[in-house]
Specification:
Elements (H helix, E strand, L loop, with lengths): L1 H5 L5 E11 L6 H8 L5 E10 L7 H11 L5 E8 L8 H16 L7 E4 L11
Antiparallel strand pairs: 1-2, 1-3, 3-4
Length: 128
């Protein structure tokens, strides 16, 4: 992802939303059992950050920074935001895009984002 973003003709910002799995208050007993077994639950956004590709050397840097900055997380969602006219996206554009990611996560619309676990392994959502 870093290489692809760095190779684009317009400057990019990489957007990250770190999430944790939670059990809804109204969960059924079956849902509780699945959650305790490590399956199911809902994703709760914990923190967001935007980074220029040049600000990261790899996933381990991002994960270490997140570990120091906030609570434990299970999944990070990533997207790229393109600038225009040779300029990176503005802070306002970044904030709108990050809020859009948070809103999408709240309603389960995560399919358009790259997702990674704490080890940097890709995660796919949805059945095949």
């Amino acid at each position: 992802m870093l290489k692809v973003a760095a190779s684009q003709p317009e400057p990019q910002q990489l957007l990250f939303v770190f999430t944790s799995a939670e059990l809804p208050a109204d969960a059924t007993e079956a849902q509780r059992e699945r959650f305790l077994a490590g399956v199911g639950g809902t994703l709760a956004p914990l923190m967001c950050v935007a980074k220029a590709p040049s600000d990261l050397n790899g996933f381990s840097d991002l994960a270490e920074e997140a570990k120091l900055a906030g609570p434990p997380w299970q999944i990070v969602f990533a997207a790229a935001l393109e600038g225009q006219g040779g300029k990176p996206p503005t802070q306002a554009q970044i904030e709108v895009a990050l809020q859009g990611m948070v809103d999408a996560i709240h309603v389960g619309g995560v399919g358009r984002y790259a997702a990674f676990d704490v080890n940097g392994d890709p995660i796919e959502f949805g059945g095949r």
